[in-house]
Fold these 4 entries.
Entry 1:
Amino acid sequence: MVVSKAWTLRQHFQGFPKASDFHLREETLPQPKNGQVLLEAVFLSVDPYMRPYSQTMMKEGDVMIGSQVAKVIQSYNPSFPVGCHVVSDCGWRSHWVCDGAELTPVLPDWPQDIPLSLALGAIGMPGLTALYGLEEVCEIKKGETLLVNAAAGAVGSVVGQIAKIKGCRVVGCAGTDTKVSYLKELGFDQVFNYKTATSLEESLREAAPHGYDCYFENVGGKFSSVVMPQMREYGRIAVCGSISMYNDTTPQTGILLSKTNKMFVLILQGKLRCNEHITSGFNNMPAAFMGMLQGDNIGKAVVKV
Ligand SMILES: NC(=O)C1=CN([C@@H]2O[C@H](COP(=O)(O)OP(=O)(O)OC[C@H]3O[C@@H](n4cnc5c(N)ncnc54)[C@H](OP(=O)(O)O)[C@@H]3O)[C@@H](O)[C@H]2O)C=CC1
Ligand SMILES: CCCCCC(=O)/C=C/[C@@H]1[C@@H](C/C=C\CCCC(=O)O)[C@@H](O)C[C@H]1O
C-alpha cells in the first residue's frame, strides 16, 4: 500500500490565493491492477491557468489540477515499464494509480543533456504554445517587429527567442530589472520593466516607433488596451493569456480569453535557452504557485519533489 500526498483546494480563491486556501491530505492508494501503473511525481508544474480554471472546473475539496513528470514505480502495463517517465495530468499528487490511457510517455530518445523537467516547459505545453502562437496565429515573418509581455516567463521567453531565430525585432516587457537584464542576455532588442516605466504607452512607442506587426498577448487587461493603437496595419495578435486579470474580484475592461524535435535541436544547439525556477519539495506546491503568480520566476516555474 502506498500513501500519497495530495494538495486540495480547501476553499475557492478570493483575489490572490492564500496559503490557507490549500490543504495537504494523505490518501492510501489501491494496489494497481492489470493494465495499471503506480506513478511517483518527479517534477510538478505550477501554471497561471490553475488560478482561473480552479474557479470554473473545481469544487472545494478537489485535488488541484495540473501536470507532472512522473516515474513509473510499479507496472502491470507493458507499454509503461518500471523506470520509464511519463507526463500525467493527475494534479498536485505525489503518487497516483492509473491506466496508460491518460499518460503521455516521455520520448524514449529524450536527449540525456536535457532535463526531464523541460517536458513541462520549453519542450511541453508552454513551449509548444509559444511556437504555435508565433507560427500559426501570428504567422510571423523575418524583419517584423514583435511585442511579447510576461516576456521572462515560460511562454514569453520562448516566444522572444524563437522570433529572434526567425530574424525578427523583439520587444519584451517584464516586471523586474533582473528579468530585463536576463532578456537582454537572451538577445531581445528592446526590453523594459513595465512596473517602473513612467508611461507604458511611451515606453512601447520608444521601443518601436513604427508600431508592432505582431503582439503575443500574455497579460490582457489594461496592458492590451494600451498596445492596440500601436499595432501596425495588418498586424496580428496571438491572444494567449490574460494573467493580469486572473486574480481580479471585480472584472476589468480588456481582453479575457477563455513540434517537439525542433525544440530539442534548438536547445542542444544553444539557440534556445530554458531557464527554470525550481522550488524544492512537494510540500511547497502552494508557495511555488503563489510565487509564480506574483512574478518570482525567470523561465518556467516547476516543483522538484
Ligand atoms: N492559451 C494557452 O494555451 C496558454 C496560455 N498561457 C498563458 O500565457 C501566460 C503566461 O503563462 P506562463 O508563461 O506559463 O507563465 P509565466 O512563467 O510567464 O509566469 C507568470 C508571469 O506573469 C507575470 N505577471 C503576473 N501578474 C502580472 C500582471 N498583473 N501583469 C503583467 N504580468 C504579470 C509575472 O512576471 P512579471 O514579473 O513580468 O510580472 C509572472 O512571472 C498566461 O497568461 C497563461 O495563462 C500559458 C500556456 C498556454
Ligand atoms: C481564462 C483562462 C485562460 C487560460 C489560458 C491558459 O493558460 C490555458 C492553458 C491551457 C491548459 C489548460 C489546462 C487544463 C484545463 C483543462 C480544460 C479542460 O477542458 O479539460 C492546457 O491544457 C493547455 C493550455 O491551452
Entry 2:
Amino acid sequence: MVLSDITIDNLSFSYDNADVLKDISLQFQEPNLTCIIGPNGVGKTTLVKCINKLLKPHQGRVLLDGTDINNISLFEMAKKMAFVPNSVSSIFSMTVAEAVLMGRYPHSGWVTSAEDLQIVEEMISTMHLEDLAERNFRELSAGQTQRVVIARGLAQEPEILILDEPTSNLDVKHQMEIMNFLSNYSKKMGIKVIMVCHDLNITAAFADRIVMMHQGRIFADGTARQVMTAENIREVYDVNARVIDVEGKPHIIMLKD
Ligand SMILES: Nc1ncnc2c1ncn2[C@@H]1O[C@H](COP(=O)(O)OP(=O)(O)OP(=O)(O)O)[C@@H](O)[C@H]1O
C-alpha cells in the first residue's frame, strides 16, 4: 500500500515584509526519516508550519497526495498528517492519558472506542509514560511533556508525521530512544517522518535524508555523507568543524577556530 506523500512546490513565505522562505521545492515520497537542519531563524519552524497549513505561503503550494492543502480541511488533513510542535501549553486540566487520546479526534470525533483506548495505551507504553498516565498534563516537566506530545502525534496514526525539535528537552537516553524509534517506525509503518533538529550528530546518525537550510533556501539535500561536510557546515553555520567516520556515519567535531 502506498501511503500519502507531500510535495512543496516553489514555496515562499514572509512575515509582514520580512522574507523568510524563498523558492522552496521538496518532495517527500519515501518512507523514511528526514531531518531539517539550519541555523537559528533560518525558517525551519516556518516551513513545517506552512506544510501543516498553520501558515499560508505567499507564493507556491503544498500538495498532499497531489491536492493543494488549501482545498483540504484541517480535519481531513489531520487524518493523514500529524504535527508535533516544539512547545505546548494547555489551558485545560487533563490527564496525560486524556492528552494522548486527543490524537484520536480526527478519526473518532468525540466518541471514544475500545480501539482508541487500546491505541492510546500502546503509545503511552511506547513513550514509557505508564507511570505518568494519570498525572495532570500541566504539571509535567518539559521533557515529559515532549514525550506526551509525541505520543499524541503517534496516536493520530498519521501517514506523515512532522515534528519540530522533538528531542530538544530530552536527556541523552530519551533522545536516543526517540530517534531510534522514529527511524524504525518510519520504515516499519511505511510513513514519512519529517523533523526539525538542531543536533548535527544526532541528525547524522539517524536521518535517512537531511535537508540543510541557509538564508531561507535549501542549501543541501541528501544523505548524511552528502550533506554533513566540513565545507557545508562552515558555509551555513559559520563554524569550523572536522567530520570523521563513526560506525559508518559522519560525526562532527567542532573546532575552536
Ligand atoms: N510570528 C512571527 N512574526 C514575525 N516574524 C517571525 C514570526 N515567527 C518567526 N519570525 C521570524 O521568522 C524567521 C524564521 O523563524 P523560524 O522560527 O521559522 O526559524 P527557525 O529556523 O525555526 O529558528 P530556530 O532554530 O531558532 O527555532 C526569524 O527571523 C523569526 O524572527
Entry 3:
Amino acid sequence: MTTVLSASGLTRRFGDRTVLDGVDLDVLPGRMTGFVGANGAGKTTTMRILLGVLAPSAGEVRWDGRPVSAADRRAFGYMPEERGLYPKQHVAEQLVHFGRLHGMSRPAAERAVADLLERLDLVPHADDKLESLSLGNQQRAQIAAALVHSPTALVLDEPFSGLDPLAVDAMAGLLRDEVARGVPVLFSSHQLDLVERLCDDVVVLAQGRRVAGGTVEELRSGGTVRLRLQVAAPSGAPSHGADLGWVRDVPGVEVADVDGAGALFVAVEPGAEQRVLAEALRRGPVTSFAPVVPPLSEIFREVVR
Ligand SMILES: Nc1ncnc2c1ncn2[C@@H]1O[C@H](COP(=O)(O)OP(=O)(O)OP(=O)(O)O)[C@@H](O)[C@H]1O
C-alpha cells in the first residue's frame, strides 16, 4: 500500500471567523504523523474535514492522488474528539457491530474484536456496558472501534489523552503495527514527548495556519541549536572548581546555563563557538563540546509564538 492522505489549502470559516486558513498536510503511508498545536489551533476541525464530517470552505482532501470519495472514507479509521461509541451498549457487541458496518462478516469481526480486546487488556470488560468502564478503558475501546476493520488510513483525535503509561504503550504498539502495514496514521496530541518518541513526521498548527512541518529530526535540528562545553575539573577539586563563568564574556555568545565544569550556550555570531573552544583549550583539557538538539517541546514554543 502506498497511499497518501493529503489535504491542500484547507480553509474553514464559521460565520466571519476563519479558523483554518490554507492548511496543507500530507500523511504518508507507513509513517506516523503527529498533529500538534495550541488549544483552538484547528486540529479537530482539520481532522473532521479529512473524514468528511465537516465540509471545508475551500481546499481539498485527496486520497491516492485523487479527490477522496465517500467509499474511500468509509475504509478509514477515525477516533473523533467526541468519541463514537454508545455508552449503554456492551463493549464487544458494539465493536463487532462497528466491524459489520464496515462490511466485515460476523466471524471476521468477532475474530478482530477478540484480538483487539486481548491486546488492549479489555477481555475482562468484553461484556460490560461501555459506561461502566473507567475513562481510560473507554478510550481503549474507542481505539478498538477505529481499528476493527483494518482501516486504510487512521485519523485519531487525541487518542493518548487520559491514558496511563501501560495503556499508552498498548496503544502505541497497535499504531506501530498499523504503520508497519503501510497505513498512514495521523494523531493529534498535546503530549509532545510522546509525539517526539512515536512520530516520524510532525505538523504544527497555530491559529489555523500550518507554521511548521517535516520529520521530527528536521524540526529539531532547525531550532536554536545550543552547544554544550564540558571541561575537566582540576584534579582533587570539586567540579565547581572549574568555573566556566568566563564564557559569558566571549563576544557573540549567549549563555543559557553555567554549571561548574559545564556551560550551555548559543553562538549568536558565526564563529563565536570557535572562540569559546579555543579559550577553553587554552585554559585546560576539554572533555566534550557538542551541539544539543532541542526537544520538540522547545521547537513548538518557538514556532507557535
Ligand atoms: N462549529 C463551530 N462553530 C464555531 N466555531 C467553531 C466550531 N468548531 C470549531 N470552532 C472554532 O474553531 C477553532 C479551532 O477549533 P478546533 O477544535 O479545531 O481546535 P483544536 O486545535 O482541536 O483545539 P484543542 O487542542 O483545544 O482540541 C476554535 O476557536 C473553535 O472555537
Entry 4:
Amino acid sequence: MAQFSRVSGSVGLITLQNPPVNALSAAVRQGIVDTVNKALQEPEVKSVVICGQNKVFCGGADIKSFRGVMTGPPLIPMIHAIEASTKPVVAAIEGIALGGGLELALACHYRISHTKARLGLPEVTLGLLPAAAGSQRLPRLIGITAALDLITTGRHVTAAEALQLGIVDHVTDQNTVDVALKFASSVAGKPLDARRISLYPCPPSDDTDALFEEAMQRVRRSARGAIAPVACVQAVRAAATLPYAQGLEREKELMATLFTSGQARALQYSFFAQRAVGRWSMPSGAQWDTVEPLPVQKTAVIGLGTMGRGIVVALTQAGFSVVAVETHEKQLTQAKQAIEEMLIRGAKRRGVTPEHDTITYSHSMEPVANVDLVIEAVFEDMVLKEKVFQQLSAVCKPGTLLCTNTSGLDIDHLASKTPNPELVVGMHFFAPAHVMKLLEVVYGRQSSPRAVATAMQLGKKMGKVSVAVGNCLGFVGNRMLKPYMNQAFFLLEEGASPELVDQALEEFGFIMGPFRMSDLSGIDVGWRIRKEEGLAVPDQRTGQIPRMQKGCRYSPVGDLICEQGRFGQKTGQGWYRYDKPGGRVARPDPWMQTFLNQYRATHGLVPRRIDPKEVLERCLYALINEGFQTLEEGIAAAPEDIDVIYVFGYSWPQHRGGPMFYADMVGLEKIMDRLEHYHQAHPDVPSLQPCNLLRKLVAIGSPPIHKWSQVMKTLRSQL
Ligand SMILES: CC(C)(COP(=O)(O)OP(=O)(O)OC[C@H]1O[C@@H](n2cnc3c(N)ncnc32)[C@H](O)[C@@H]1OP(=O)(O)O)[C@@H](O)C(=O)NCCC(=O)NCCSC(=O)CC(=O)CCCCCCCCCCCCC(=O)O
Ligand SMILES: NC(=O)C1=CN([C@@H]2O[C@H](COP(=O)(O)OP(=O)(O)OC[C@H]3O[C@@H](n4cnc5c(N)ncnc54)[C@H](O)[C@@H]3O)[C@@H](O)[C@H]2O)C=CC1
C-alpha cells in the first residue's frame, strides 16, 4: 500500500506502507501508481515527496513474490512515470534504500537522505541485476567505475559515501521527511530536465574497452561460476556504450536470463535460509521466541592460539569486555601483539578507533571470577578441556555460562565434569574467528534453553550467522566433512592426483579443494584426531597402518605424509609444495606423484583414469548423504541449517544454495541411484550407502526442499 496526504497545502506526501522493509509488493506498486497519478492530477499539488513508513524508505522488490506469478503493475513503467513527472519528486530516504527502493529514488528528481541510512543495489547477491533501470541510471549519475563497484558487489554504502559519490543531493540528521517537504516546496515550478538521470550522458572514461575488460576479468576471478556478476558488468557496459533506451532493452534481456536461473533460486533461498536459522528450536520444544537470553557484558576467552585470538577480537569489536587467559608465556606475548594488530586493522577498515582497553590479559584464571560468559579455546584434548572446565567451575561466579570452541568433542561429556551442566554449550567458531561468519551453537542433552538463547544472541551481536545444532562427533559441519575427505583420499589411492580432485571441486565453486584446504589448515590436525581415535596407528604385526578399520575401508595416505613431516603450508610441504614454510602458493609436487605410485604399488592398487564427474559425485554425494543422516537423527533441525553452515563455514558456493538445496536441484532419486552405484563398487564404504531418510523421501516422490521439514516430522517416527 501507499498512502497519500497533502502537507502545507501544496506538497503531496506519498508514504510506502509494507512493514518491515516496505518491499515493493504488488499492493505497494499499485499504491505508488495511484498516489503518483493523484499527485499529478491535483492542481493544488506543486511538488511531491516519497517516503517510507516507520522510518524505512524501501528494501526493494518483494523477494518472496519472485517465485510465484507476478501480479500488479510492473515496476519499470511506474519508475519512468515518476521521472517524467512535470512536478518535482523528492525521495526522503530513511533507514534503507536498497535494490528497487534505490531505483525508485533514482527516478525521483532529488534525493535527501538521513545520515544513518544505507543505500545499495544488492540484486547481484540474489542472482539478479538492477533491472528497474538501476544499471542504466547509476553509471550516468556516478560514473562507470563507481557504478561497477556498487552493482557487481551489491555492497551497501552509508549516507556519507552516497553523498560523496553523488547518489544523494543532501544528507541530514534532522527529520528527513520534514527536510524533504521543505525542500520540495522550494523547488516547485523549477525546470526538471537537468534532474532526469536517464537524459544524462554516461560520463566518458579514458579507455572504455580496457576498463570493462579489466572489470570482467576481476569479476570472473571472484565469481566462482556465478553468472549474475558477469551480467551486471554487461549491463553497465550497455549503459556506457548504448543510448538509454537500447541500454534498457539490454538490461531487460540480461535480467530475463538471470530471473529464471537456478542460481537466482539458490541465492534467494540462501537469503531466507540465513534468516530462518535465527528461528532455532530444541528437541524439548524450547525455541527462539519463548526463551529470554541471559545478560552478558563481561566475557573471557581461555587459550590464545589461532582461534582464541580471533574470538577475543570478535568479542571486543562487538563491544564486550574480555579477560584473555593464556598459560604459555611466549604465546601470551605473541597473542597480545597479534590481537592489537588485528584490532587496529579492523578499526581502520571500519573507520573507527580501535577498542583495546577493554581487554585484560592474564596468565591465570583469577580475573575470570566475575565474567558472565567464558569461551574455552585450548588444545583439542578432552583431558585438558575437562581440567579447564573444572577450574572454571571453581573460580567463576554462579550462573556463568561455560562455552567450548571444540571442533567436535562430546559436549555432554565435558558438561558432566561440571556441577552445572545446564550452563555448558558449544560455541564452534571457524578460522579466522573474527572474519568467518559462521557459528555453530551446540546444545548438549542438559544445556538449558537460556544457555542456548544466550550463545545465539551473543553470536548475533558478534555479526555471526549462528546455527543451533545437536551434539555428536563433529557436530554438523565437521561430521559431514569426514565422508567428503574420505572420498578424496580414496580417489588418490585409485589413481587421482591432489590437483585433479581440487580442480574438480574448485570448478564446482569451492574456494579451495580438499587438499589445498587441508594444506592451509594443517594436515596434522586430522592426523592427531585420527591417532586419538586409534585409526592412524600401525598394526603391530605388519608395521603398517591397516587399510581396513572396524570392517570399513580406511585410507592412511594422510597419516603417511604427516609421518614425513609434511603438514601443509606451515612446513612448506604437504599435498603440494610451497616456496618456503608459511608460503601460500601451492605447486604440484613430483614427490607426491612418486609417493602415490609407490603407495599404490605396495598395496596392489592399479591406478585408473578418474573423471572429474566421479570426483564431484563421490565427494559431494557422500557429504549430502551424511547431511540427510544428521537430519534423520535431529542433529540438524532443517535443511536450511546445513546449507547455511556449508555456505558460511566451508565455502560451499552460495549460488548453489548449499548441499541440501543442491541435492534438491540435482534430484533426490539421482543422488540415491549414484550413491547406490558407488556403494556397489565400494561395499566397504558405508557412508556411500543411501541413508533411510533419503530413501524415504525418494519413496514418497522426492518432495521439494521447502516441504522436507514438514515431511520429516512424519517420517522420523517411521525411521
Ligand atoms: C533490508 C535489510 C537490510 C534489513 O535487515 P534486518 O534489519 O537485519 O532485517 P531482516 O531480518 O534481514 O529482515 C526482516 C524481514 O524482512 C524480510 N525482507 C527483507 N527484505 C525483503 C525483501 N526485499 N522482500 C521480502 N522480504 C524482505 C526478511 O526476510 C525478514 O523476514 P523473515 O525472513 O520472515 O525473517 C535486509 O533484510 C536485506 O538486505 N533485505 C534484502 C534487500 C534486497 O536485497 N533488496 C533487493 C531486492 S531485489 C530488487 O529490488 C530488484 C528489483 O526491484 C528489480 C525489479 C525488476 C523486476 C523485473 C522483473 C522482470 C523479470 C523478467 C523475467 C522474465 C522471465 C520470463 O520470461 O518469464
Ligand atoms: N584451528 C582451527 O581451525 C579451529 C580450531 N577449533 C578448536 O579450537 C580450539 C583451539 O584450537 P587452536 O586455536 O587451533 O589451537 P592452538 O594450538 O592454536 O591454541 C591453543 C592455545 O591454548 C593454550 N592453552 C593450552 N592449555 C591452556 C590452559 N590450561 N589455559 C590457557 N591456555 C591454554 C595454548 O598455549 C595455545 O596457545 C580447539 O579445541 C580446536 O579444535 C575450532 C574451530 C577451528
